[in-house]
Write a structure and sequence with these properties.
729 residues; alpha+beta; seven-stranded antiparallel β-sheet; 24 helices
Length: 729
């Protein structure tokens, strides 16, 4: 067994807000600097190879190219007409062409600005991706001491490492690749990943064993088993994701794109049929006018902003130090209906402390305290340490751990303890697990009372502690003669975090059911669940129980989100629709989840759900605005264009636009400008308020539906007043 020492900080200095690797604060959503920085990227996106992925904007680009060709050819073919045979200056076609190109450029600009917001973080992360020297260990399994281990070390470039390789990392060294600690404990600077300059402790044999390539060991020495290939490390994936390079369209985006493409095809048919109708009335419209009309009618606004909305949603998660492995996970978070939350560290502070020893009748309290302390000497958890401290306060101290075999706690056994060399065995843990262990040991010590009376008393103590919201740990002993008995109960107290009840009430208002998962007995779980305000709980939960609960919820049509950090959480994280792995957890947990919380804060799952819902609401609101906007433009343009051909349409010309040419040009200008005006909203997101889905829908229809109808009438009229001042229009 390797010796474990407490790590010490290399500097001991407090966290520095100006730490060189600290993540930059989020910039303003939109401004001149962001525009200038994003413009080259927006211009590169004009290539048809990129544009065809967005059917709506691809139609606009094709229309812009065709209009440009017509503008070049017009001097040789004769002047254009707006409608009704009305001649317009040749500059009209050029103006239409310019504003069509600007429409495409503004759409690309929205996406480029959204992607650009992750560039600063990506640049910071690239500094950690430099090739380092790795101390590769060969023959580690045969090494019996430190000198033999050092003798088998060879220095190789980190790019030569492969999954399964073992490397030694000492104080001051960069960790050469992602992996799990298999030996040792160390203080690690993870500021390049989390932005937090305070060091963290990483150690072997637990759920805090994962380390990330590019982070620096500040103290002690560890042996790391590499789990990633070169170029596929956690940092590499972070860089690709925050830059948007590996962002794939989600199912909802694909479905919406198909809908928008279908609407565009419908309007293409509408625009093509207008010219024969106008020709029948001896007033054909020119091709640039028909293209302008088509662009104004197809849903260009949401088509231009759709990609930016998705990228911005992932960026908001990055600002919360959460890395989403796919946009699908962000969307799923918005649709979650069941939230699974661990009790310890999420709902409670997780610092349960022993407050009382409760012996059974006929059991000496000193015997109970001694057995509880022995079972906790090798227990590294705060609960175990608190039992040893409380025992010391009661006069029972151990200067060193007695010889014997340590039995660690596992989710399956729900017990821990110590098998002493002299044959004595002590256990502490969940009541049902410990009592079952006692019954399996063979002879049970006879008391003055019957076994059933002893069991009734134990159940009474356990129930009393559980009803008070505490956690009972049952302590048992088997003496050297092989006789086992339950000694009593240790009362552990835990504290529910402030404000959680209100947050759970908000989730309930959103239609989300919260379920607390705990290894505690049902009475304790019920007391904590009632105090915290969760809707349901799963007590004495094993990894298999978690997985079964997730599957049951999903079979009922629910989308499930949960957090986890251990290897035993990996199956449940993989099964959940939204699996948030803690960065401090094992590599298996991080691979299984579709999100990683760099701060390892389980309560952040609630914020993730809010960000997901904000993404869906923003997309829905801007889609509503775009469709309402198109309908309004239809009623604004058509009467002005064809009133001369069909006098009955004059009654619908509510805005009294100056001329058919100014009506077309004003609509095209408004269509382009509204994209720029909505970029900040797409990046920031529509403000999310918890509430019933029908109320949220009604509010969005009122604000963005009505706003989408009114805005074109006002905007086009104001632009028309300016255009009418230009000679010839």
């Amino acid at each position: 067994m390797s010796t474990i020492t407490t790590p010490t900080s290399a500097t001991g200095a407090p966290a520095d807000e100006n730490h060189p690797h600290r993540h930059p604060k989020p910039k303003a959503p939109f401004g001149p600097k962001q525009l200038a920085a994003a413009l080259p990227g927006a211009l590169r996106k004009l290539h048809p190879r990129d544009m065809w992925r967005n059917p709506v904007m691809f139609i606009v680009e094709v229309g812009a190219a065709l209009t440009t060709v017509i503008a070049i050819a017009e001097p040789f073919l004769g002047g254009p007409t707006a409608s009704g045979g009305t001649a317009v200056p040749s500059s009209f076609t050029w103006a239409i062409a310019v504003w069509l190109w600007l429409t495409v450029l503004f759409a690309n600009l929205a996406e480029a600005v959204a992607e650009g917001r992750g560039k600063a973080q990506a640049d910071s992360l690239r500094h950690t991706r430099t090739s380092t020297v790795a101390h590769l260990v060969r023959g580690y399994d045969q090494a019996t001491d430190a000198s033999a281990l050092r003798a088998t070390i060879s220095d190789v470039p980190s790019s030569d490492l492969r999954p399964g390789d073992l490397v030694v990392v000492t104080a001051g060294d960069l960790i050469p690749g992602d992996g799990d600690i298999v030996d040792g404990i160390a203080s690690v600077d993870e500021s390049a990943i989390t932005g937090e300059s305070a060091p963290v402790v990483r150690e072997s044999g637990g759920d805090r064993s994962a380390v990330t390539g590019g982070t620096r060991v500040l103290s002690d020495r560890i042996v790391v088993r590499v789990t990633s290939k070169p170029g596929e490390t956690f940092v590499d994936r972070m860089i690709a994701l925050v830059e948007g390079a590996s962002r794939q369209k989600t199912p909802n985006e694909i479905a919406l794109n198909i809908l928008l493409a279908s609407l565009s095809i419908v309007f293409v048919v509408v625009a093509l049929t207008l010219n024969p109708i106008a020709s029948y009335a001896a007033a054909p419209a020119s091709v640039p006018v028909l293209i302008a009309l088509l662009v104004c009618l197809i849903p260009t606004t949401i088509g231009a902003l759709l990609s930016a909305i998705g990228i911005a949603g992932m960026d908001r998660l990055v600002q919360q130090n959460v890395l989403a492995m796919s946009g699908r996970a962000v969307e799923a978070a918005g649709d979650v209906t069941t939230l699974l939350l661990d009790k310890t560290g999420t709902i409670t502070y997780g610092n349960r402390r022993a407050s009382e020893f409760v012996p059974l009748s006929g059991v000496d309290e000193t015997e109970l305290i001694r057995a509880a302390a022995l079972a906790s000497l090798a227990d590294p958890t705060p609960e175990g340490s608190s039992i040893v401290e409380l025992a010391a306060d009661r006069g029972i101290r151990f200067t060193e751990q007695p010889a014997g075999e340590v039995v660690p706690f596992t989710a399956q056994t729900r017990m821990s303890g110590l098998d002493l060399a002299d044959g004595e065995v002590v256990r502490k843990g969940a009541g049902s697990a410990v009592t079952a262990w006692v019954e399996e040991q063979g002879p049970v010590a006879s008391l003055e009372r019957s076994p059933s009376a002893e069991r009734d008393e134990l159940d009474e103590h356990v129930a009393a502690i559980s009803r008070s919201g505490g956690t009972p740990l049952v302590v048992a002993k088997r003496d050297a003669g092989g006789t086992a008995r339950v000694l009593g109960v240790v009362h552990l107290k835990d504290i529910v975090k402030d404000g959680l009840s209100d947050r759970f009430a908000e989730l309930r208002a959103m239609g989300i059911r919260t379920v607390m998962i705990t290894g505690d007995n049902p009475l304790t779980a019920a007391a904590i669940a009632k105090e915290a305000g969760v809707d349901d709980y799963l007590a004495e939960a094993t990894p298999e129980d978690k997985l079964a609960l997730i599957r049951t919820e999903q079979e009922g049509g629910h989308l499930v989100a949960m957090t986890g950090d251990g290897t035993n959480d990996a199956p449940a994280l993989a099964q959940a629709d939204v699996g948030v792995a803690m960065n401090t957890g094992t590599s298996a947990a991080k691979e299984a989840g579709n999100m990683v919380d760099l701060d390892s804060d389980p309560t952040k799952l609630i914020d993730i759900v809010r960000i997901g819902k904000q993404l869906l609401i923003t997309r829905g609101a801007l889609t509503t605005f775009s469709i309402a906007n198109d309908l309004a433009k239809y009623f604004a343009i058509i009467p002005a264009m064809f009133a001369g051909v069909f006098p009955g349409l004059a009654a619908l010309n509510l805005m009294q636009l100056h001329s058919p040419a100014s009506a077309v040009l004003s609509a095209i200008i408004f269509n382009a400008i509204v994209i720029v005006l909505l970029i900040p909203l797409a990046l920031r997101g529509v403000r999310f308020r918890a509430g019933d889905a029908s109320k949220i829908l009604g509010r969005n229809l009122l604000v963005y539906g009505l706003g989408g109808v009114i805005a074109p009438f006002i905007g086009i009229k104001l632009i028309d007043l300016v255009v009418s001042l230009i000679p010839g229009f």
